Amino acid sequence: MEADTPLSDRLDDDDYPAYTMGRAAEMLGTTPGFLRAIGEARLITPLRSEGGHRRYSRYQLRIAARARELVDRGTPIEAACRIVILEDQLEEAQRINAEYRRAAQEASGVPDRGPS
Asked: How far apart are CA 5 and CA 110, in angstroms?
């Protein structure tokens, strides 16, 4: 995100790295160590400030919150991260599939009757 982007646009951007590690941990009710651990498991990759500090977006916090739910239920952190990654991939595949289905229906002139 460029520095000349208006602040209001950045605040509405789910991918804007607005939260420090301390604030992110506080919002999630966890520790900075948990955020480092899910980073090491490659669930999320925080952006870095010019000073090298980790910064998190709202999207990353939602992903981290889901992992925390699983860990709180007793799932090992590595497994929780893998589950969240697979859930995210499935959601994306379903979204793409729905787009293809709509495009095919529009091209054929058949009215959309919802998911089958």
From this structure: 42
CA distances from 59 to 12, 18, 37 (A): 11, 11, 17
For the segment 38-52, what is each residue's pLDDT rounded down to a tens digit?
999 999 999 998 898
Chain centre distance of CA 83: 13
Model pTM score: 0.75
Backbone angles phi, psi at 55, to 5 degrees: -130, 135
- SS3 category, 95: helix
Backbone angles phi and psi of 56, in degrees to 5? -120, 145
Q: Compute the distance between CA of residue 54 and CA of residue 24 in angstroms, rounded to an integer.
A: 10
Alpha-carbon gap, residue 8 to 18, rounded angstroms: 12
Q: In what order do the strands lie in the sheet with 19-20?
A: 19-20, 54-56, 47-48
